[in-house]
């Protein structure tokens, strides 16, 4: 088995931990924020987990082992949620959310900027760049509309 598979599992566990933090902290704010955060993370995770599964197969894991290891990394999300709940201040959820949500949001922004923006800058076809920017603006608009309801 290649080291890239194990590194991917470690990165996926940390990623899932931050997702668990975000979901639990969002539910501490309100049910609406919690459900919106959960849906956003699910939409992010589905293609992410498929890609991680392919990385594990390429690293030498068989299908059953790769699926089992992916399930183990999901426990990082449960640990993150438990950590967020246990870190809740006796004064209320406001102090907990005051550091967890900015921390996880910053992580998501960092990943987007490091992984997505360089690809956008390397795009040779201007029409593809316009489409990607329009889809990015559409995503931002959907987030704003959901926050208003």
Spell out the blueprint of helices and strands.
Layout (H helix, E strand, L loop, with lengths): L2 H27 L1 H28 L4 H24 L6 H23 L1 H6 L3 H23 L1
Helix pairs in contact: 1-2, 1-3, 1-4, 2-3
Give structural attributes:
88% helix, mainly alpha, 149 residues
Question: Can you put this structure into words, describing what you see?
Answer:
The chain is mainly α and 149 residues long. It is built from six helices and no strands. The longest helix has 28 residues, at 31-58. The model has no long low-confidence stretch (mean pLDDT 83).
Briefly summarize what is shown:
With 149 residues, this protein is mainly α. The chain has helices at residues 3-29, 31-58, 63-86, 93-115, 117-122, 126-148.
The overall pLDDT, averaged over residues, is: 83
Tell me how many strands there are: 0
Number of domains: 1
| CA-CA gap between termini | 49 Å
Helix and strand succession? HHHHHH
Question: Helix count?
Answer: 6
**Which structural class is indicated by helix and strand composition?**
mainly alpha
Shape: flat
Share of residues in strands = under 5%
The largest sheet is: none
Helical percentage: over 70%
Give start-end ranges of low-pLDDT stretches: none
Radius of gyration: 17 Å
């Amino acid at each position: 088995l290649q080291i890239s598979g194990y590194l991917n599992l470690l990165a996926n566990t940390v990623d899932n931990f931050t997702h668990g933090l975000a979901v639990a902290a969002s539910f501490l704010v309100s049910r609406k924020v919690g459900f919106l955060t959960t849906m956003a993370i699910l939409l992010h995770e589905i293609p992410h987990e498929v890609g991680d599964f392919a990385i594990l197969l390429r690293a030498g894991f068989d299908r059953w082992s790769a699926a089992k290891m992916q399930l183990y990394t999901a426990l990082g999300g449960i640990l993150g949620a438990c950590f967020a709940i246990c870190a809740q201040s006796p004064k209320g959820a406001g102090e907990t959310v005051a550091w967890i949500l900015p921390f996880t949001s910053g992580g998501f922004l960092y990943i987007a900027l490091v992984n997505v923006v360089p690809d956008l800058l390397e795009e040779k076809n201007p029409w593809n760049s316009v489409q990607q920017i329009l889809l990015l603006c559409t995503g931002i608009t959907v987030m704003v509309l959901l926050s208003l309801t």
